[in-house]
Amino acid sequence: MSVVKMKKLSVVGHKKDRRRILRELTELGVVEVSIASEFNGTFVDKHLVTCETLAKKIARLDFAFSFLQECHRELKKKEFFNSIKDNQSCLNAKFGKENVVMRYEELSSIVKDEYELFTEVDSLFDINSELSDIRTKKTRISSQLSQLDIYAELDINFSQIKDTKHTSVFLGFTDIDNVSDALSLLPQDAIVRKKTALNGCLLAIIVFKSDAESVSRTLSSINFRRCPFNEALTPLEMIENLKSQLEILNKRRKELYLTVAQRFSHLKELKLLYDFYLIELQKAETMAKCRETIGSFIIEAWIPEESELIVLSKIESTAAGVICKTRDPEPHETPPSFVRNNKIVGAFGDNITATFGTPEYGGIDPNPFVMFFYCLFFGFMFSDAGYGLIMTVACALIILIKKPAKRSGGFFVMFMFCGLSTVVWGTLFGGWFGLTSDQLSGNALGRFLLSMQVLNSMDGTDILIMFGIALGLGVVQLAAGFLLNGVELIKKKKAASAILDNFSWVIILTGGGVAVFGILLTISPLSLAGGALAGLGLIMLLLGGAVGKKNPISIFAGAFKNLYGSINVFSDILSYSRLFSLCLTTGIIGMVINIIAGIMPTLLSYAGYVVAFVIYAGGHLFNFAINALGVYVHNSRLQYVEFFGKFFTGEGHPFNPLGSKTKYVFLTDGSVYEQQEKQKISNP
Predict the structure, then answer these.
(1) Which of 41, 476, 525, 573 has the most CB atoms lying inside 10 A of its own CB?
(2) Where does 97-248 show beta strands of DSSP type E?
(3) Are 473 and 539 found together in one domain?
(4) Are 366 and 393 within one domain?
(5) What is the pLDDT of residues 469-488, one digit of tens each?
(6) CA–CA separation, 294 vs 51, rounded Å?
(7) How far apart are CA 348 and CA 410, in angstroms?
(8) Does residue 438 contact residue 445 with C-beta atoms inside 8 Å?
(9) Are residues 538 and 585 in the same domain?
(10) According to the per-residue pLDDT averaged within each range, which of 77-91, 188-202, 262-276 is highest?
(11) CA atoms within a 13 Å half-sphere pointing along the CA-CB vector of 128
(12) Which domain does 165 fall in, by range?
């Protein structure tokens, strides 16, 4: 469980073998190609055409997934239920990552169906285009229908409403209700018909042409909008005609969506093709990192030291005349960080540490420590054994039933162990779904659970002890952080700084903890020994600020700076009080829910039992969810700020071997690691 040691791999071969070798490197899954060093007579082929072609294919597939997902949402609506109820490929369509692990060779076999699959994609383009046209037409028709509603009561053709030789006709609508003042300004011989309509007023006005311009200005003042229709149809006839068109468009829309429903059977193949082209694009970009001559190529890459022999053997057996060499990283080089952990530790690394950053190459792997402290703190804060049991069982069942591929189930593994920690802490605190001691003592099971209780969160003295435990856990984690940073500095040959600036804090925190423990237990020798130890650490801390200074003022300033910096450490310790507050929150909210639900039968008679059940179920579900979220967030913050702030920067470069960037399936890397295990068995 550490950051794996890396080797620099150099491969020189004939250009005709390059694609075959890149294919094998992808299959191995443990080779990250880097930019090759410059040599006289070599050049770089950018392979821009290949990259552009692959990017276009990926973009077409991206469209297909986006369009299919949009159609899937539509097809799940009630209007399509009877039509697709037997279409399982549509009903069960999944657009996320498949729980599938396959070899690169298997994935690349999908390319034989490329023409047929892209024919399907092209047909989706056509369907999408037609659906877009239908949406545009429906929008236009809907707009016309809303306008026609205003004129629905007219019983003449729109084409008959037109100017004559001597008169002008104004037919239209205004959204102003009171138009009397404006109409009073019209000529006395104007013929006016007014009808109150929806959200406004419908007007029909006939005037002599000589008055048309002034009438137009008057009507503009009341936001008058002339009728836009001049068809040889009555409003009702137009409405019926447009509704008929709308019905035809809706029918065609449904036909198109049902056509798309038949294309979901190709969804998995499209995903495989997408991932194949992602890898091909990565390979093409990799070729742009290689240097070459007219007839040869040079590849430089990083590989794990543990895979060295297998990688070299695989490359040399792939092509005749290829030359492979490996070497250790040089001081000016920064290899990628390949962190190898077991499934349990890796789950915390993938979901907690990786969110913050990647360990530096050659640095300390924080994942085992994160797993320990994260589990420890999670259980303390969640603190209800009943909730923890539900979390553990639920996550375990998901893992057993879904059998997540590779490490995709790490989230559930992490919370399964957090749930176990919660069961332990909750049992020690007597936390079982917010039930009080009196409620638990009413039956044999409750009395058995109470027999394992050590602290009671409702007891004043025990609450102080729990608060002390919370701060004590913080002291332990901070001491671990300083210790790890000191070890890291020693590896970098900075022993003085490690001892005086970091180990001093380990001694101070340890001594302070021993002293407090001795005071609480009234053991004077223990408290004196702890105080002396803390004093020794303080002297070391002051020396750390003074070392290297040449004059008394600088020595004093340096020592004072280190002493003043201790404020930050004690502030960090107080941050762990959140462990205590969240611990109490879960139990108190659960208890309040039980009290409220418990009085419902008394208040509402028989109906109260139904209400009580709803409060019990809904309340505890809410309590579980809101506190699990709060614990997750605050626990992560303690790792990122207080713990990582002491030793971990997360500035490493993550190891990204060829074939690792897939979106929908997992590529196996067993081709290397299985062989390594076989070698260990045959050569113990």
Answers:
(1) 573
(2) 101-102, 167-174, 191-197, 200-208, 225-226
(3) yes
(4) yes
(5) 999 999 999 999 999 988 88
(6) 21
(7) 7
(8) no
(9) no
(10) 262-276
(11) 16
(12) 149-239
